[in-house]
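seq:
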Amino acid sequence: MTPPPARRRRTANGGAPAHNLPRRGTVRRAQAVTTYGVGSLIAVDNESFIVSGLDHAEGSWRADEAPRVHERRLARLLGVSYFRLPPASDDDSKDGVRVRRFPLMHSCPECTELQRHRDFNPPEGRSVCGTCEADLVPSRFVVACAAGHIDEFPYWHWVHRATERGATATGRCGGKLRLRSSGRTSSLRSILVSCTCGQAPEVSMEGSFRRKALTDLGLKCQGTRPWLGTSASARGCGLPLRTLQRGSSAVWQPVLKSALSIPPWSDGRADPLAEHWDALREYDDPEHVEIYLKGVFKGQCPVPLDEVLALLDAEREEDPDGDTSPTFDHRYRALRDKEYERLRSGNDESEHSHDEQFICETPLGDQSVLSPLGVTGPMLVKKLREVRALKAFTRLADPDSTIESHEMPLFDSTLPWLPAMEVRGEGVFLRLDEDRLGTWEKATAVAARTERMRTAHQRVLDQRAGRDGLAVPSPATPRMVLLHTLAHILINEWSLEAGYPAASLRERLYAADDMAGVLIYTATSDSAGSLGGLVAQGEPESLDRSLRSAIRRAEWCSSDPLCMETGVSGAGGANLAACHACVMLPETSCEHNNILLDRALLVGTPDERQVGFFAEILDH
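struct:
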């Protein structure tokens, strides 16, 4: 994915050289969206880089390496025309994903000097000290703010924090910084920084991770965006800075949005018109639509007029009723509503062509065996396609709690596309009986447990939104927590019974006043997504057996009684009876980052059995 060092070139304004990911540090296509997306840090051998922005000359993706992907419903939600897969090629001459060196501050383990990479005068294409020829070590520390900016750690200010302010505060003391390790411990206390000016004592890095450590030095975020290159002008930000380890997960978190391809968009008919749908929506008269198509395609439109009109009607159906300017959340809810409707109604394979990407059928077995469990309407999703798009990224916050003002875009200008990945697989969809669910969720004990989780989660959301931010409301409701926990125990059960790794299964929740369903599906790019084993678990007899086994497993946890009786657990106290020994999953499998879980709502507690939706099953 990366040219050899000889092809590395400097920017037009003489900045630091841009690098592609070397072959020895290649990443999978999916990782370029979920783990190493724009603005993230990536370690390659003993070097560190930041992935360049999409609209920067060094970060743009070549069309022959990054093919287009179409998913109209998701594209409309995110305000783009299409998506692009991350570059992938076995040809070393291809550009791949462009990166830039970051952080620029490096240290030499031999001479202990701490300075910018270029000041070591390294030989072309190598990251070694020009004097000692020892491998340079990128700074272990960076600073970031909640708005998404990232910068070098202010070593000079940290060393000189005890000196008098004045001439020395300008950063021109005339000395050189040095960094060494005392070797006594592996803690921050053993990392020592000094300056040869003699005006400040040698200090350790201990205390640099305090929340107000940099604020106490009078330092605020300058709005630097190194992923956009040296030509990107810093915009004053002013937010407090936090010290982070370069490899910390808090440095970069993706904001991912996904959609299932469902009829009438799931057979690829609309793809040739991907860049014209916004214009077509402006016409209500079929004659005007026909005139537009003839003008654009010179009378050779690849899609028949009646199909274009049908697709326009389907798109308008997803517009929220009575809202001329719907918010992002309303439009995302409308997208989920349509998926839920299609999963309930199905899409029989025999009625469609081989190109259809969504096949959902009713199982042949007797569904009445599921009635005692309160489960209804299982569907076998024999074929599905999911597109996951990287909308933005955040720093210092969890993906589920980001707000619009804290999302950092992937580019500085305007692009008609976003990075995305597509996965194909299979799944099982099931619903809970509305009458039984409605009675259960009105119980006082059930509402009380859920309210404890909702309050704790909302507190976390409010804290992360900040004083001036508008926090999103917590989605915690009795049915949402119930469906979420049910999905987790089923994934764990099927990972044991059907042989699927838990990380290869994924949940998709449909929890609202008029929805009570869950889709468990394979969503991997390898062969585990198309073996047919998961669909077989959706037959009523197999589903009944799996559900009963999963519920009985959830009755006990190896951490009980602590797990069941704890008053708070999980990040920010947003879980109750849930831990890694019972219901938690790999992060890639969960829509809500392993929060809002409580197995007591499935099986009850020793003192309150009635709070468990499936408690009657355990009593027989």
